[in-house]
Amino acid sequence: EKGNHRHYMIKEIYEQPEVVARTLAPHLDIEQAPALDWKAQQRLTITACGTAFYAGLVAKYWFERLGRLPVEIDVASEFRYREAPLPEKGLMIVVSQSGETADTLAGLRYAKAHGQTVLAVVNVPTSSMAREADLVAQTHAGPEIGVASTKAFTCQLATLFALALQAGRARGHVSAQEAQALAETVQRVPGLMHEAMALEPQIEALARDLAKARDVLYFGRGAAFPIAMEGALKLKEISYIHAEGYAAGELKHGPIALIDETTPVVVVAPYDHLFEKTISNMQEVAARGGRIVLITDEEGAAHAHIDTLATLVLPKMDPLVAPIAYAVPVQLIAYHTAVFMGKDVDQPRNLAKSVTVE
Ligand code: F6R
User: Fold this and answer.
1) Is the CB of 96 inside a 6 Å radius of any atom of ligand 1?
2) Any idea where the SIS domain is (predicted)?
3) Burial category of 345 from C-beta neighbours within 10 Å (exposed 0-12, middle 13-18, buried 19 and up)
4) Could you tell me how far CA 37 lies from the centroid of its own chain?
5) ipTM of this predicted complex?
6) Dihedral of CA 229/34/72/60: which sign?
7) Pocket flag, ligand 1, residue 23 (CB < 6 Å)
8) Ligand 1 center–CA 7 separation, angstroms
9) 353 in active site
10) 122 lines ligand 1 (CB under 6 A)
11) For the whole model, what pTM was predicted?
12) pLDDT digits (tens, 9 = 90+) for 223-271
């Protein structure tokens, strides 16, 4: 039931601190985590569709950083037909809320037929993917009713972070002490997500402006890049405003041609080692009259020195886990823009909750 909330989507956005915490607990527990031979892996393959694919893209940064494990990732509709050569006795991770997405399931079957051990990160434990995979890492988001995925996404991120931590530990790139510290860091994320909800009134006001736009561009660098793409996907799905997510460094290679006063630019930029680079891209946007929505933390806001349409300030956090918490403001931006425009956010046109045909 929706309870006091106007829509399932906002109810599910608000559930995130609780379900992310619930998802993290078993996956951070080495005894309960799926037993995988991380040490034997040369490379990891990930496939998924839509929002689940963006969770996989964030995970690529984590597996490479924490596990020093190269990651190959592709959308399942491409992966399944590419006849990709896979490493001998390799490991494949599929990510899916429903566990029924036709292309992802076909990717899983391809991987199995090619000798891979398949781990399914799924929300529905009775799903086809859960049944056909060798191992399951369940996300405990609970039933997701809103067609646009929110809580399933952040639970996928939480699970994948725990798996990357496990990989790093097993492969000897993360010490026991570091693993303990990182586990504590990620366990603080639900509280940070809860704090991020305080941005809602500011985002509601901002939504009135965004609702007038024909196009909105999203930028991010590093693991914030997939969050930018997720923000753009969410906005287009429920408000029908055209939106695209780009790697901030790609600005000069094309998207800068689109910048003008009528095209808002949302930038996902936690204060990390890439912040200054992203901000210098945003100075170019500002110089061309672009109106910027900066999503950052206090330090980022203090160092940005750019005029913005809005600056959304999140609590300070370890940049490694920032993608999980930074998902919240991009979800709220999409939600409030669509609600202000009078759109049916829970049942957007042309979309189905589970895509069981390709
Ligand atoms: C976006 C959205 C879709 C799904 C995609 C995969 O809001 O919901 O992009 O993420 O269809 O679905 P699952 O995760 O069920 O495989």
Assistant:
1) yes
2) 30-173, 206-348
3) buried
4) 26
5) 0.99
6) positive
7) no
8) 19
9) yes
10) no
11) 0.97
12) 999 999 999 999 999 999 999 999 999 999 999 999 999 999 999 999 9
